[in-house]
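ok trying again, last paste got cut off:
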Amino acid sequence: MKFMELGFRPDTFYTVESVRSVSSDLLNDLVIQVKSTKYLLHKFPMLSKCLRLKNLVSSQETETSQEQQVIQLVDFPGETEAFELCAKFCYGITITLCAHNVVAVRCAAEYLGMTEEVELGETENLVQRLELFLSSCVFKSWRDSFVTLQTTKVLPLWSEDLGITNRCIEAIANGVNVSPGEDFSTQLETGLLRNRSRIRRDEILCNGGGSKAESLRWWGEDLAELGLDLYRRTMVAIKSSNRKISPRLIGNALRIYASKWLPSIEESSRDSNLILESVISLLPEEKSSVPCSFLLQLLKMANVMNISHSSKMELAIKAGNQLDKATVSELLIPLSDKSGMLYDVDVVAMMVKQFLSQISPEIRPTRTTEHRRSRSEENINLEEIQEIRGSLSTSSSPPLLSKVAKLVDSYLQEIARDVNLTVSKFVELAESIPDVSRICHDDLYKAIDIYLQVHEKIEKCERKKLCRILDCKKLSVEASKKAAQNELLPLRVIVQILFVEQARATIATTTNNITTNETAVLKRSFTTRREEGIEEERDEAKPSGGFLQSTPSRFMALCAIPRQPKKMLCKLLSISRSLSQRI
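nice, full thing came through this time. structure:
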């Protein structure tokens, strides 16, 4: 830490019964009261450098009084230590200035008027000396600037008027705006980390320079010591500086500050609201600059603390942009309103909508009321039979969409246990996922089953509405077996499951038969052509014995599809009509 010494005389101040005096052959002729301390001093050294004292003494001399009057410095900024340092400077006694006391002494010198206007000698007065020390030493060092900024909170108004606060913030911002591609060793050489703790620098160097994240996150740990107002102003200066700093580093600094100052949800207070609002307002705009887990943690606190709606929406949008990185437990955001629901389902639905808008805008959410009816209410035609073949095959949906679909289905299983969760909320969130994103409906079925177990007394129409979002063709064999025996499901859904499983098994059997029959037909065809003894085909394109084995079986099966399964389809359709009539 930088320091400056002024004066050359030894310290001759002493105390007698709470009165501070100076050892001298001359009698004291100046009495000054600062706070609760009285000083017995001399006019000549003090008035030659302090314009305020000179004016006060002049006004006292016009009054006729035989008693020595005491000059009261009622509104003196700071404590008596700062005044005593100014007084020692007037006497030429050695004083030491550093980042810890320079603000207090600078404010005291300004109050006493220790400027060039009153200086009788050729040397600079204390104000000029202090300004030189600040500009040439303090503001050139990160550590000194930071310590000085912390001391301004004792005299905030004076520090603002003298420009000390703004200059400290500017110096700190210039010290942390490091280019993301700049090597850490270069930072040490250029002095961007100068005057940091020697232990910390030696530790980083001994570890081979440390990782880039570790070497650049130290400033976030330092700034976390600041109060809210100074921290907010410093972070704004860092973000708006001409030299761009990585958004991830800014996000990391905000995480450090939040973890230090934001209490647990149970210990929230008014100050916590202000801190949370400030942290949200400082979040970088860039995607992934802050982890999704941190955003969701802030969102949980925002719901409990009842902060502004705009701040909540900002968090939801930022979290929605990286919803694929969230976990189910992180999405369980408590809700504190009159609805009685345990979790905020609406904000999760908003995050899903935001994720879909920036991942795949052309994919629309599922709407069962428009696009899907219960399969027991309509005849299943040939196209749907063909659809059953690939019901559990690999989907063309983007991987991130499939991941979010599984996340939402798992989330539905958790919130289904909430006795106050309505069917409309459940269905709305389930339908927010595009149908193409759900490769399998097993997880969705589990969520519906849990909901029906917890809400056994829901009306029949709501039960149908809930189950209408389930696509039985996308259930696995194991899930279909369990669903077919589930007494909580509507009867029509059970019939639909049984019909789909029967059709699926029949299609598999038919496909095997088609492949066997067509292989025999092709064998006879090639044998006949070979026996005709056509010379051109024998010489130019005589079929080899391996050609038959290399013919794709799917091609042979395809040739037989139009004429083979007619009887089977008629039988299935008649069964479907019969079941529908019974229901």
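cool. The longest strand covers residues 30-34. The chain has a mean pLDDT of 79.
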